Amino acid sequence: MAKEVSLFIDFLKTKGLKLTKQREYILDVFLATERHLSVEDLYNIVKKKDSSIGQATVFRTLKLLCEADIAQEVDLGDKRIRYEHKYGHGHHDHLVYIKCGKFIEVVDTGIERLQDKLCKRVGFLPKRHKMDIFGTCKQCQKKKR
Amino acid sequence: MAKEVSLFIDFLKTKGLKLTKQREYILDVFLATERHLSVEDLYNIVKKKDSSIGQATVFRTLKLLCEADIAQEVDLGDKRIRYEHKYGHGHHDHLVYIKCGKFIEVVDTGIERLQDKLCKRVGFLPKRHKMDIFGTCKQCQKKKR
DNA sequence: TTTGATATTGAAATTCAATATCATCTATTA
DNA sequence: TAATAGATGATATTGAATTTCAATATCAAA
To answer: Per-residue pLDDT tens for B27-72?
Structure first.
């Protein structure tokens, strides 16, 4: 069993909530998918296997997963909330491939250090930051569009 | 007359569009406001002076200003599209003050350089990026919340 | 001027994702 | 088993973004 599942069970327990088969299944699918999913994306995958699961449940489960620090929202500027895996993924930025839709997570300690310096310089106490670089990967650079 | 106004006139001309008093007034107010405005924000300011101007016109004018490179969208993660001045403001990142809502524009050449390096390292061709740091300024750090 | 072609406007309608509501349904416990 | 609390899925609602549409304004040409 993935660490995330037992984490989720613990989280639900402390909140007085229940592990249902819907929640379990939604978490399974979420963990198995290495992409930035919107609620609708995840719902579409989930309903292929079990068409009885409703979009509302997917929505609510994702919120719970965020509360449990298993998932987190990402904003890639496409006007939809997307979710990514959080557990086991420390702070990171994104390189987002604008043509193929893939992304990679990066951390550059040099950049992080300069960000802190910059904040200190102007008397700013940083709480969180986001840095996303949008561009194309080698494969995509060959494509017309 | 602000440079932006003549820019806008030129833009409209090449597009076969007209400079109306509504557009002119909306641009005036936009330029006079040093904040990240949503359509609604700008509309609320505009209608104080001229209550006959509709929200749709503000919306459309902001889109035109973006096309003319006078304004640009900013996404500060509050789930609304905001607009900032673009003309005369080169690329920059933001330090956003999460309590008082102010922000400053920053450019750190060190960070920019490291970003480019990072991209080169993974064979990624960057097109655009955004980096926003959210935190509190000195004044706000004293406040409870 | 006047006209006619075209662009613009404001109000209202529509869209779309996010979220809330609610009448069941389901598990667990007394 | 009954009672209780939570969960579910269908559907309704919200709110910002965007489009529609009939009325109006603009401007070059007559």
So the answer is: 999 999 988 999 999 999 999 989 999 999 999 999 999 999 999 9
Contact (Cβ atoms closer than 8 angstroms) between residue B23 and residue B11: no
Q: What is the CATH architecture assignment of A3-85?
A: Orthogonal Bundle (1.10)
- Identify the CA nearest to B112 among candidates B93, B134, B87: B93
**Mean pLDDT, rounded, of chain B:** 92
Contact B118 A106 (CB under 8 A): yes
Q: Over chain A, what is the mean pLDDT? A: 92
Give the per-residue SS3 of A54-108.
CHHHHHHHHHHHHHCCCEEEECCCCCCCEEEECCCCCCCEEEEECCCCCEEEECC
pLDDT score, position B132: 92
Using the beta-carbon criterion (under 8 Å), do A104 and B119 form an inter-chain contact? no
Percentage of the residues of chain B whose pLDDT score is greater than 70: 97
In chain B, what are the domain boundaries?
A: 3-85, 93-142
CATH 3.40.50.11810, applies to A93-142: no
To the nearest whole Å, the CA of B21 is away from the closest chain A CA by 32
Q: Which of residues 30-69 of A touch strand C (CB under 7 A)?
A: 38-40, 55-56, 59, 63
Q: Per-residue pLDDT for B80 more than 60?
A: yes
Distance B47 CA to C22 C1' (A): 40
- Protein contacts on strand D: list nucleotides below 7 Å from a Cβ: 5-11, 16-20, 25-27
Nearest to B19 by CA among B30, B7, B29, B37: B7
Q: Over the stretch A87-97, which tens digit does the pLDDT of each residue have?
A: 999 999 999 88
